[in-house]
Amino acid sequence: MAKKLGLHESLDVHELFVAKSLALTKATTMSGLAKDGELKKILEGYSTLSTRHLQELEQVIGGQEAEEKS
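Now predict its structure.
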């Protein structure tokens, strides 16, 4: 049985999604500009991990919206 998020929880998830999206954009941009190979590798790893986190958050948000429509 899926549990419905409260309004404050939904807002927290949305805020987390926005912050993570901005951090991903910055890391992706900076990895293209980085000259140091190790720094570039770290930024690319962070981008990959952040993308996975955003997909998981999207599932939480998407599941919540589906519940509200039914």
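The mean pLDDT is 89.
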